[in-house]
Amino acid sequence: MAAGLKMFYARHTGKQNKKMHISEIAPEDKDYLICRYCATRIVWVDSFKRLGKNIPAYLRLWPNTAHEPGCKNTMKSLVDALVAESTNIEDAQEVFAEDNGNYVFRMNVLVDAVRELKSAQKDLDEAAEDSEKERKRTHYQRTEKKLTDYFNSAAGIAKLRARIEDSEDKEELSKLVTIMFNKKKVSWNDFFFDENRYPTLFKKASKIDYPVAIALTVEKEETPVANGAFFTAKGETCRVSKEDGEKDFFCPELRSHTSGTLLKFKAKEEVIVVGWLNTKEAPWKHGITYKNIIFWIDNNKQITRVD
Ligand SMILES: [Zn+2]
């Protein structure tokens, strides 16, 4: 039986089904938890370390149970809700196309919008007269809004993938949502990378020509520091030991030309990042190699919390 997605809200049967976020749940509450939307029991999972990286606490279905049909926490309901929210974006192409009750996530729509925004920025910069500048600015703002909505959709769908723990649920999502780029299918494994798959991402990076999504745990709350021309914020390092005793340290790093986009996250929060990546390798001492996975962030909606 599919295990269902990680959850971060529950209701408390001993407190008139009060809705609680995981941060409000005390140890003595843990025997009274049911799904936020149906009567299925749920269980608390403590935070733990995986590959040296912190996995925050979460909630999951009680073993061998399932959400009631129509519960808003089923994968189908969550995907339908995300698609509904993503359609009818003003003056835009549909980023999700419907296909017999399932959906196609059209990566080209997002990539084209990035290109369009760059060209709108150039037009605005080059506009000479005030009236022309005003018109170009309006166009730029509309284009930026559209791109923000597309990033929101991409991060939203990656977030659902990040909440999956079980292979049956992975299969269900890959049936519900197919990813297409340049008329080719992109497998979910080539779009979404959690910390277990940082090594794979690092290896494939040079061949990937579309935006990908990664799960990342924020290392510490920080004021992003300007590093030359840009600001940076870091994710927790993921440490992988190799057979020869050497170690690879995979270090996710976010870069932005504005500090504001990187400021809103706290230490230990698990977030999803969507964007284009660069990699860099730096051998260090004691057989350790630092492998940097760098994402450029220009839009707030490229980053979203998992909970
Ligand atoms: Zn439910």
State the end-to-end distance: 24 Å
* Shape annotation: globular
Portion of residues in helices?
A: 25-40%
Question: Major sheet, described briefly?
Answer: 6 strands, mixed
Quaternary: single chain
Rg (C-alpha, Å)? 21 Å
Number of helical elements: 5
Q: Please identify, by name, the CATH architecture of the largest domain.
A: Beta Barrel
Order of helices and strands: EEEEEEEHEEHHHEEEHEEEEEEEEE
* Total individual domains: 3
**Structural class category:** alpha+beta
CATH class of the largest domain: Mainly Beta
Tell me what portion of residues adopts beta-strand conformation: 25-35%
The tally of beta strands, per DSSP, is: 21
The average pLDDT is 91
Structural features, described:
- It is a single chain.
- Helix content is 27%, strand content 31%.
- The model has no long low-confidence stretch (mean pLDDT 91).
- It has 3 domains: 9-69, no CATH class; 80-161, no CATH class; 192-305, OB fold (Dihydrolipoamide Acetyltransferase, E2P) (Beta Barrel).
- By secondary structure, it is an alpha+beta fold.
- It has 5 helices and 21 strands.
- The chain starts with 8 loop residues before the first strand and ends with a strand.
- The protein has helices spanning 75-86, 107-126, 130-162, 167-176, 198-204; strands at residues 9-12, 18-21, 33-34, 42-45, 48-50, 53-55, 58-61, 96-99, 102-106, 177-181, 184-186, 192-193, 212-217, 225-227, 230-234, 238-241, 247-256, 270-275, 277-283, 288-296, 303-305.
- The strands form 6 sheets. Strands 14, 15, 16, 17, 19 and 20 form a 6-stranded mixed β-sheet that branches. It has a 4-stranded mixed β-sheet with strand order 8-9-10-11.
- Helix 2 (107-126) runs antiparallel to helix 3 (130-162).
- Zinc ion (ZN) is lined by residues 35, 37-38, 40, 67-68, 71, 73.
